[in-house]
Automatic annotation (TrEMBL):
Residues 27-167 form the AMP-dependent synthetase/ligase domain. InterPro entries: AMP-bd_C_sf, AMP-dep_synth/lig_dom, ANL_N_sf, ATP-dep_AMP-bd_enzyme. Keywords: Ligase. This is Acyl-CoA synthetase (AMP-forming)/AMP-acid ligase II. It comes from the Bacteria.
Amino acid sequence: MLLSTPEQIETYSSSGLWGEDRLDLVFARHAEQRPDDLALIDDQGLHSVSGRRPQCLSFIRTWRRVVALSEFLTGIGMKADTVVAMLIPPSADAAVLTLVASRMGLILAPIPLTSGEADLREKLEQVGAKAIVCCSHYEEEAVAERVRNVAAEMFSIRFVFCIGENAPEGLIDLGDILDGEDNVAEDGLFEHGSQISANSVLAIHWSSAGSEQAMPIGRSHNQLLAIARYVHEQTDLSSEHCSFVSHHLSGLIGFAVGMVAALDVGARLQFHNFRTLGRYINALAEFGGQHVVLPGGLWEEAHALLPMQVREQLISIMLVWNRVHAEQTVFAENETAARLIDLTNFKDLALFSQIRRHPSEVGSVPLGAINSLHDPSRVWMETFLYGMEESRAQTDSAIVGGELCLKGSMLPQCAFPLAGAVEGKALRATEDGYIHTEIGCHLVTEEHGDQRALFRPLGDLGDVLAFGGFTERGTDLDALYRDCIVVTDAAAFVVPSEENNPAHLMAALVVDDKETAREEFYAYLKEKRVSSMKWPRDIIFVEAIPRQTNGRVMRESLIEASQVANVA
């Protein structure tokens, strides 16, 4: 499936940012040239996490698995452009499935492992998925059971595969197929008869860009490789290095920056399922991780725990910031051999990466072209502040700002077509093709001579709540909570983090009977099969939901009310 326009393909191909190689072709060359080098290593605790025995695969064994699984799926009738939902933790199996999708022209749709049945069904219906690959469980989450229940109600799902022990009845076990690489014939092992284009869609991720509900965004091989190569220009990731991947694959950080990048350059991929920071750092020491990605807020705590061995082996440390560059100073120390790189995630629509220049500050973003470090004539991305000129004209204040808009080699121009649709809905854009993000920014410095204009992201303009690595529209959560029969009115809000703890979701409810409402409200969420991430950590009861004259919930007032109630 092609979603890129001919104009996009011509522009980015002629500049050298896009090419003709699919991800599987790139990896196959590594397998031919370095067959016995280690390629993929699982977290040694994977079995307790997902029911799958940890794998340790060389390049040639990985490629044999790719060929074996491709032949099996082709044999049962799976064809190019089939959307395959994937609920698999970061693992060797996930990498193999990605390479299989690349080789066959399948479209992967990684879905969060904690998704409840209602959310899972909604996502499957949105993208018209025909197959699902899942793990048997994830921690305490009964992933395979949920998948089976949803698939039983969806006639469009043709195949449901499971990887791991104790899978529910009715699911096809892929474990034996994946482990049967020795059955692959040597003849034709590296033949590539497929004519799938590198501009065809490889993966779907959901983005909350704009005030609308999160939309499925399909990206081609070239767009995903552009993300990976743009970020790793600054890390110097190479085939001799070990990349440590712990972010889940349902986001661009885990999928593109973590997995695709390592498969592209032929680095050793060490997967890790994050539980505690101490366990994470022990694994870094044990397996020699050299390139890591961490939430920005964890850096101070992680830095204090790093043993000398890890400090000396690290090459790059990428710190992730979601939509906002903190105004206050950030932890400045870096007593390691690694360079610090700040990675700003603009709602999984695009990423901005830069080497930390001022120790205690996340750098501002250049206005205009974001050029390649290796070839300044190549432009990875362009930024534009919508409404900036109006802001400058209408205010005497020194603070001038606007809405962040983006375009570039990693950004699509339309959403993935909803099931049954021929074309995807065009993303809201300016006349010049810049995609709106609804992220507010203010100008830090004006352009002056060789000095670039710089701006700082301040956060969402829309009513979007961010908590625990997730984002949800506030109005969607309000409506969900209000639908409970014992609730008269409701609003969701997020209590900010304290001392590096994650922000957590809360609910304010207006009810008649407070004594029974709490129990009935949580019973309602359970009956509705709502994802655990949408369950509020706690509840406060209020006489009325504070709203502005336009009806918008005043969520800041609810935060204050929770503090008064001593709930937060």
